[in-house]
Amino acid sequence: MSDGRALAREFLEQQRLLGGDPVILTDGPTPGFTPGATPGLRPGSVTPPVTPVAASVPTGPLTPGASPGNTQSPRTSPGKSKASGAKESSDLPPSGLSYDPPGGDLFSADPLQQAASLEAVAALVSTCTKCRLCEARGRTVPGEGPGDARLVVVGEGPGRVEDETGRPFVGQAGELLTKILAAIDLPRERVFICNVVKCRPPENRVPQYDEIAACLPYLFRQIDLVKPRAILAMGGTAAQTLLNTKQSLGALRNQIHRFRGVPVIVTYHPAALLRNPNWKKPTWDDVRIARRLLD
Predict the structure, then answer these.
(1) Fewer CB within 10 A of the terminal residue: the chain, N end or C end?
(2) Crossing angle of helices 236-243 and 209-226, rounded to 10°
């Protein structure tokens, strides 16, 4: 066959018979093509019913990795979907920093590492002269609370009233802390409360680096003995010390940090709340997160 169009028509007819879509030539009808027929079907055959698209589309959001029509995660069985949903609804903050300083040698001659109770640590603090803060102190303030407390509150250092009484957080800031703890159903007597430094800095100034370094072993030993479920770091000094960071308090909030594996929540110091009441609302949010970590 010498006519090129005839050859093309023969080729298209073969493709149609094999199930291909017909192609309409401009100079005449395509062989075997019937107007109105469904492409790909032989003449006289019945067009299969078309399933509405909406019937095959899932009504709920599609979980990544799941097949259409199955909105559950491919790794979650139907019996566990409610439990996972409840956990997601807790809305806990994301993970933050983790600091795991080396522990002391239990076989060393250091009396602090041999201290087996909070009372033993307090006795060592009472005779401490490792930094200049001992020179002007009235009384040492090691901390107070039960040895099995679920929550440990850590502040910066003792103030004037604390220096006089030997108890942490007993001034105006302490009264506010007591109210904050009561608001989350935690009586003060059930919380271990202490500071980074155990003696009052002059004029309530921020403790200096060498003073913090001298007191840190006492704080670390207290936390090791209590084994709390959570730590509430109140103020920038407490937060930066426990997490070994220079990040600001604002940058450390709204995260769950870790100190030797124990969750740490960072918030404002009660004394700061007395100066700036606008910080009470974010502090309340932080404290509620700490409370949920205890359950």
Answers:
(1) C
(2) 70
When mean pLDDT is compared across 41-50, 55-64, 182-191, the lowest value belongs to 55-64
Sign of CA dihedral 241, 244, 248, 252: negative
Please give the backbone phi and psi of residue 23, each rounded to the nearest 5 degrees, phi first. Answer: -115, 125
Token representation of residue 291: 């409370």
| Nearest-angstrom CA–CA distance, 225 and 147 | 7
Q: Does domain 95-294 have CATH number 3.30.1640.10?
A: no
Closest CA to 150 of 231, 245, 207: 231
Structure tokens, 288: 């509620």
DSSP 1: -
pLDDT digits (tens, 9 = 90+) for 68-111: 444 343 344 444 444 444 444 468 999 999 999 987 665 677 89
Q: Which two tokens stand for residue 54?
A: 């909406």
Give me the pLDDT at residue 103, please.
79
Looking at the chain, the number of H-run helices and the number of E-run strands are: 11, 6
215: left (phi over 0), alpha (psi -120 to 50) or beta: alpha
Q: Which amino acid is at 220?
A: F
Q: Which two tokens stand for residue 166?
A: 């030997």
Report which secondary-structure segment, H or E, holds 164.
helix 160-165
Please tell me which residue, 280 or 73, carries the higher pLDDT value: 280
Cβ neighbors of 293 (< 8 A, separation 6 or more) are: 92, 229, 230, 256, 263, 265
Tokens standing for residue 213? 């370094």
Angle between helices 209-226 and 118-126 (to 10 degrees): 160
